[in-house]
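hey can u check if this looks right to u? its 114 residues, i copy pasted from the old doc so theres a chance i mangled smth
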Amino acid sequence: MSRVKKGVRALKRRKNILKQVKGYRFGRSTKKRQAREAIFHAGTYAFAHRRDKKRDARAIWQIKINAVARPLGFSYSAFIGALKKKGIALDRKSLSDLAEHSPESFERLAKQLA
């Protein structure tokens, strides 16, 4: 059996790792071991923050709906509760878009609930 040297593969692996951490600071961008650690952490944060992004978007929708519903005599929770009782199946994303871009349509919807 012939001897296998792994210089080419090791260099390729190192080059690929360092390519992923381009722009990182200090040893994380130049040292393989620190770079690997940085990639693992970055992946964990990316996964968690994709979830956070969805949570933040929903919170913004609720704030927009509440801001337009208050002058019409509804709180956010009362407005959503009234929608459910009437059987109007509009999600928060479309409601917030309605509230932001066409408040007159939102007002007509609120009058149906009153």
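The helical segments are 7-20, 32-69, 76-86, 92-101, 103-113.
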